[in-house]
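Let us work through a complete example step by step.
Step 1: write down the sequence.
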Amino acid sequence: MAMASQGQCLGSSSDKNCLVDFRERLLTIDSNLGVKDVEHLKFLCQDIVSVKKLENSSSASDIFDQLLAQELLSEEDPFFLAELLYIIQRKSLLKHLSYTKEQVMNLLPTRGKISPFRKLLYKLSQEIDTETLKDIIFLLRDLIPRTPMSSLNLLDYLEKQSRINEDDLTFLENLFKTVAPKLIKMIEGYKRERAAQLAMPPVDEETESLHQGEEELFSGSDTKKFHEALPETPEYRMNGKYRGHCVIVNNHKFTSLSDRPGTDNDAVCLTDVFQWLGFTVYKYDDVTKVRMDQILQEQKSHPDHANGDCFVFCVLTHGNVGTVYSSDGVCIPIREITSHFTAHQCPGLAEKPKLFFFQACQGIETQHSVSIEADAWNPESTLQDSIPVEADFLLGLATVPGYKCFRDVEKGSWYIQSLCNCLKKLVPRNQDILSILTVVNDDVSRQADARGTKKQMPQPAFTLRKKLVFPVPQGTLQC
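Step 2: predict the structure and record it as tokens.
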């Protein structure tokens, strides 16, 4: 546990000594931070701490005092400071808060307080080199003060002058088109995430989740807002001779790991849904490492891909961070699976969407109930390069890196069941795959075990270049 040392201190005979010890560690962090680090901290905190108080802070310890006063920082919970140190790339100082960089990275999706907009501006400031900054200042000479400015100062000034905000980055995009076109990709990524957030329908106490059988996920006005929020993009061609292959690897029984009851129900649901969507489904049960290699080679070289629209590969198994287990207990990197289907390795799928869904844990295994199981983990693994850098891939993980995912031993996994339900309900509404996965994220994040103590957050990653909209099937789905 990251907080073990703090917990031991709180349980000692002198809480005052503990508090002094914590402040000593904060002073140690302060002594290792320079003037630029302090400016970076002040910039990142300005949505949370008043600007006036930050302006009066001349050192990191002054900022720490403000965080302590607002109960954003404490000995019991120093995560916000850990988040700040992680963002400004002072990860070596995390040890003074009893965190590792891997722990902070894994906790950020659920505990992070810094807004995506604030992080975007900070990341942009770090990517603007000296020459680019000179060019920007030259272009904006009549709009900005004639005083020395860092890239962070400049972005901060543009925000304070209301030239940019979290909903409108047009000024910055136009500026970067001239002097730093490579930075536009960072803005486009932020806008996609922002658009997905705006697309989510409002939820109140009377709203039922998908697994409770709701009839309508979007009203007409919600759908209109969604389409207005997303920029217009072309769609992948989905009118070929047939839809394509859907491979399902379903590992239930293992030679050295625990069985996965409930997974067969996931496999049945995936089979029914993707057959309904027009795919030819290939299901393989209890796949060994040798058999997995054979399947990958067979699919990589299959001639049908040349005439298909799309490719889907689903893996239901135990997993580590960035890896999955074969039925004989061999750890297979996710990257090893996806790499078989790049344009170079599989020309028949070049420029076509390739979707991979993994129902497998990506973090620490815990089990508090006999009817809910976690799917394993290896704390020394890291999630790196799981998705190829080239275009047209989508990777759907049942959970964010570092966390477990859950499976009902009778009904199946939370993620796969939600994925199937969302596809059934939203494909007929002409929703694209990223919008559908956003609803899956929301639905799974709202689920919990009987005691309400277990939660799960899926994570999609993608290099899709176009919208992927499945044609509405003509027949009905009986499942």
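Step 3: interpret the result. Residues 300 and 345 are 7 Å apart (CA to CA).
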